[in-house]
Amino acid sequence: MAWYAFETLDDLPPATVQPYDVVVMLTPPPVDWQGTRELTPASLAQYEELRKLLRAGGGLMMFMEPGEFASRALMPFCAPYGLVPPVGAFADDAPTIGVYDTVNFAYTTDIVQSPLTEGVRGLWYPVGGKSGGRFDFDTLRNANTTPIRLDASWQPLVRVGATTRFVTFEGNDPLTEGLQSGE
Protein backbone atom coordinates (compact mmCIF):
# COMPACT_ATOMS: atom_id res chain seq x y z
CA MET A 1 0.00 0.00 0.00
CA ALA A 2 1.36 3.39 -0.96
CA TRP A 3 0.37 6.38 1.13
CA TYR A 4 1.59 9.88 1.74
CA ALA A 5 0.73 12.52 4.35
CA PHE A 6 0.35 15.96 2.81
CA GLU A 7 0.44 18.91 5.19
CA THR A 8 -0.71 21.07 2.33
CA LEU A 9 -1.36 20.53 -1.36
CA ASP A 10 -0.96 24.23 -2.13
CA ASP A 11 2.27 24.05 -4.13
CA LEU A 12 1.77 20.63 -5.74
CA PRO A 13 0.13 19.81 -9.06
CA PRO A 14 -3.38 18.47 -8.32
CA ALA A 15 -2.65 15.04 -9.84
CA THR A 16 0.14 14.47 -7.27
CA VAL A 17 -2.29 12.41 -5.15
CA GLN A 18 -3.06 9.85 -7.89
CA PRO A 19 -0.22 7.31 -7.37
CA TYR A 20 -1.21 6.71 -3.74
CA ASP A 21 -3.70 4.32 -2.16
CA VAL A 22 -4.37 6.61 0.80
CA VAL A 23 -3.79 10.34 1.24
CA VAL A 24 -3.55 11.82 4.74
CA MET A 25 -4.44 15.51 4.55
CA LEU A 26 -3.58 17.84 7.45
CA THR A 27 -4.53 21.21 5.96
CA PRO A 28 -7.45 21.93 3.61
CA PRO A 29 -6.83 23.62 0.27
CA PRO A 30 -6.86 27.40 0.55
CA VAL A 31 -9.80 29.76 0.41
CA ASP A 32 -9.42 33.20 -1.22
CA TRP A 33 -9.99 35.19 1.97
CA GLN A 34 -8.97 38.51 0.39
CA GLY A 35 -11.41 38.36 -2.53
CA THR A 36 -14.22 35.95 -3.22
CA ARG A 37 -14.05 34.07 0.13
CA GLU A 38 -14.44 30.93 -1.99
CA LEU A 39 -12.04 28.12 -2.81
CA THR A 40 -9.38 29.07 -5.32
CA PRO A 41 -9.42 27.44 -8.79
CA ALA A 42 -6.34 25.44 -7.72
CA SER A 43 -8.21 24.21 -4.63
CA LEU A 44 -11.16 23.08 -6.73
CA ALA A 45 -8.76 21.17 -9.01
CA GLN A 46 -7.19 19.50 -5.96
CA TYR A 47 -10.61 18.43 -4.70
CA GLU A 48 -11.46 16.96 -8.11
CA GLU A 49 -8.27 14.87 -8.02
CA LEU A 50 -9.15 13.66 -4.52
CA ARG A 51 -12.63 12.67 -5.76
CA LYS A 52 -10.99 10.70 -8.61
CA LEU A 53 -8.81 8.93 -6.05
CA LEU A 54 -11.89 7.99 -4.00
CA ARG A 55 -13.85 6.81 -7.06
CA ALA A 56 -10.90 4.58 -7.97
CA GLY A 57 -11.05 2.93 -4.53
CA GLY A 58 -8.43 5.06 -2.79
CA GLY A 59 -8.74 6.46 0.70
CA LEU A 60 -8.55 9.87 2.30
CA MET A 61 -7.92 10.65 5.96
CA MET A 62 -8.43 14.28 6.95
CA PHE A 63 -7.11 15.72 10.20
CA MET A 64 -8.23 19.33 10.03
CA GLU A 65 -8.09 21.98 12.70
CA PRO A 66 -11.48 23.16 13.92
CA GLY A 67 -12.60 26.63 12.98
CA GLU A 68 -14.11 28.74 10.28
CA PHE A 69 -11.24 28.45 7.79
CA ALA A 70 -11.14 24.65 7.71
CA SER A 71 -14.92 24.25 7.83
CA ARG A 72 -15.51 26.61 4.92
CA ALA A 73 -12.67 25.07 2.94
CA LEU A 74 -14.03 21.55 3.51
CA MET A 75 -17.71 22.26 2.76
CA PRO A 76 -17.51 22.00 -1.06
CA PHE A 77 -15.63 18.71 -0.79
CA CYS A 78 -17.71 17.14 1.99
CA ALA A 79 -21.24 18.17 0.95
CA PRO A 80 -21.65 15.65 -1.93
CA TYR A 81 -20.80 12.86 0.53
CA GLY A 82 -23.42 13.91 3.09
CA LEU A 83 -20.88 15.39 5.51
CA VAL A 84 -21.01 18.79 7.23
CA PRO A 85 -17.97 20.20 9.11
CA PRO A 86 -19.57 22.66 11.57
CA VAL A 87 -17.58 25.53 13.09
CA GLY A 88 -16.93 24.46 16.64
CA ALA A 89 -15.54 21.58 18.65
CA PHE A 90 -16.32 19.28 21.53
CA ALA A 91 -16.18 20.17 25.23
CA ASP A 92 -16.22 17.58 27.99
CA ASP A 93 -17.18 17.63 31.67
CA ALA A 94 -13.92 15.96 32.76
CA PRO A 95 -11.25 16.10 30.03
CA THR A 96 -7.74 14.65 30.37
CA ILE A 97 -4.77 16.87 29.49
CA GLY A 98 -2.29 15.49 26.98
CA VAL A 99 0.19 16.49 24.29
CA TYR A 100 2.50 18.90 26.11
CA ASP A 101 -0.35 20.15 28.31
CA THR A 102 -2.07 21.95 25.45
CA VAL A 103 -4.71 19.51 24.17
CA ASN A 104 -7.58 18.07 26.18
CA PHE A 105 -8.92 14.60 25.45
CA ALA A 106 -12.05 12.63 26.33
CA TYR A 107 -12.64 8.88 26.08
CA THR A 108 -15.51 6.86 24.68
CA THR A 109 -16.45 3.20 24.65
CA ASP A 110 -19.57 3.85 22.51
CA ILE A 111 -18.32 1.80 19.57
CA VAL A 112 -20.55 -0.17 17.20
CA GLN A 113 -19.32 -3.70 16.60
CA SER A 114 -18.40 -4.20 12.96
CA PRO A 115 -15.50 -5.63 10.94
CA LEU A 116 -13.99 -2.12 10.92
CA THR A 117 -14.02 -1.85 14.71
CA GLU A 118 -13.06 -5.43 15.57
CA GLY A 119 -10.90 -5.40 18.69
CA VAL A 120 -11.46 -1.68 19.40
CA ARG A 121 -12.65 -1.18 22.98
CA GLY A 122 -12.25 2.58 23.35
CA LEU A 123 -11.11 5.75 21.62
CA TRP A 124 -9.48 8.97 22.87
CA TYR A 125 -10.51 12.11 20.97
CA PRO A 126 -9.52 15.78 21.34
CA VAL A 127 -11.92 18.23 22.97
CA GLY A 128 -11.75 22.00 23.30
CA GLY A 129 -11.58 21.88 27.08
CA LYS A 130 -13.83 21.55 30.07
CA SER A 131 -17.54 22.26 29.62
CA GLY A 132 -18.25 25.82 30.75
CA GLY A 133 -14.56 26.77 30.71
CA ARG A 134 -12.46 28.80 28.27
CA PHE A 135 -13.21 27.39 24.88
CA ASP A 136 -12.07 28.69 21.52
CA PHE A 137 -9.94 27.81 18.54
CA ASP A 138 -6.71 28.19 20.52
CA THR A 139 -7.69 25.43 22.95
CA LEU A 140 -7.50 22.98 20.03
CA ARG A 141 -4.51 24.40 18.20
CA ASN A 142 -2.60 21.12 18.16
CA ALA A 143 -5.47 18.67 17.91
CA ASN A 144 -6.06 18.80 14.13
CA THR A 145 -9.49 17.31 14.52
CA THR A 146 -12.84 18.78 13.59
CA PRO A 147 -16.25 17.22 14.20
CA ILE A 148 -18.22 16.10 11.17
CA ARG A 149 -22.00 15.96 11.11
CA LEU A 150 -23.30 12.99 9.09
CA ASP A 151 -26.48 12.72 7.07
CA ALA A 152 -28.82 9.71 7.31
CA SER A 153 -26.89 7.73 4.67
CA TRP A 154 -24.00 7.17 7.13
CA GLN A 155 -23.80 4.75 10.03
CA PRO A 156 -21.47 6.11 12.69
CA LEU A 157 -19.18 3.48 14.19
CA VAL A 158 -17.96 5.60 17.13
CA ARG A 159 -19.83 8.24 19.10
CA VAL A 160 -18.46 10.74 21.60
CA GLY A 161 -18.88 9.95 25.28
CA ALA A 162 -21.94 10.87 27.33
CA THR A 163 -20.16 13.82 29.01
CA THR A 164 -19.09 15.44 25.70
CA ARG A 165 -21.06 18.23 24.02
CA PHE A 166 -20.60 20.16 20.77
CA VAL A 167 -20.02 23.87 21.29
CA THR A 168 -19.97 26.45 18.51
CA PHE A 169 -17.27 29.09 18.41
CA GLU A 170 -18.33 32.64 19.08
CA GLY A 171 -20.41 34.28 16.41
CA ASN A 172 -23.46 33.35 14.42
CA ASP A 173 -22.32 30.82 11.83
CA PRO A 174 -24.69 29.36 9.21
CA LEU A 175 -22.74 26.09 9.25
CA THR A 176 -23.97 25.44 12.77
CA GLU A 177 -27.57 26.46 12.16
CA GLY A 178 -29.84 23.78 13.53
CA LEU A 179 -26.99 22.11 15.45
CA GLN A 180 -27.46 22.53 19.18
CA SER A 181 -24.93 21.82 21.90
CA GLY A 182 -25.05 18.11 22.68
CA GLU A 183 -25.87 16.94 19.15
Would you mind describing this structure in some detail?
There is one protein chain. This protein is of the alpha/beta class and 183 residues long. It is built from 2 helices and 10 strands; from the N terminus they run ββαβαβββββββ. It has helices spanning 41-55, 68-78; strands spanning 3-6, 22-25, 59-62, 83-84, 88-92, 96-98, 103-108, 123-127, 149-150, 164-168. It has a 3-stranded parallel β-sheet with strand order 1-2-3, with helices on one face. The longest helix is centred in the first third of the chain and has 15 residues, at 41-55. The protein is globular. Mean pLDDT is 78; it is low at 172-183.
